[in-house]
Amino acid sequence: MKWYPFGEREEKSMENEMLWTSLALAGQEAEGQTLIHCKYVSTNKYKNGGWMSIYKTTFLVNADTKDMLKLVQAFDVPVSPAKHFFKQAGQLKQFTLLFPSVPKHWKRFHLLEVADGGGEFRVSDITRNDFGVYHVQVS
After folding, report:
1. Three-state SS at 117
2. Which of 24, 91, 113, 119 has the most Cβ atoms closer than 10 angstroms to its Cβ?
3. Which of 139, 136, 109 is nearest to 36 (CA)?
4. Cα–Cα distances in Å, from 40 out to 23, 48, 93, 95, 137?
5. What's the average pLDDT block by block, 10 residues per block, for the chain (139 residues)?
């Protein structure tokens, strides 16, 4: 598994993805963090599928109150201005976003990326669960 620490353009490697997942889940229980596992399929708009990255300005937003939780860390996806270039259209990219714990009074929330010059994404109406682990399709 590879991850990009904030403020660094070089990705870091993890030797054992299973170990990292176990540590992340343990951290979630101990510190109350939220994991958002994302899937993205590269666009057919570009022959090579284009590129992608995540902005530090990515949030979980309460659907009712508009309260926000800021992205803590991104795993297996570059943080802008770094980019992941696809080799072909239709290629799958999976990555994980780490946020603070979603408060218990939140019933639904949105995953929102605010990007410079457009190109941001939004996943609407994610229902809160007691595990703090979610799987979403980003488009």
Report:
1. coil
2. 113
3. 136
4. 24, 15, 5, 8, 6
5. 54 58 55 90 85 93 95 93 92 95 95 84 94 93
Dihedrals φ, ψ of 20, to 5°? Answer: -65, -45
Q: Which residue's structure tokens are 């109350």?
A: 32
**Nearest residue to 79 (alpha-carbon basis) of 54, 114, 116, 111:** 54
Q: How many angstroms separate the Cα of 97 from the Cα of each of 7, 63, 127?
A: 16, 19, 17
Q: How many separate domains does the chain show?
A: 1
**Among candidates 32, 84, 95, 99, which has minimal Cα distance to 53?**
84
List the domain range (segments joined by +) for residue 42.
2-138
Residue 132 DSSP SS3 = coil
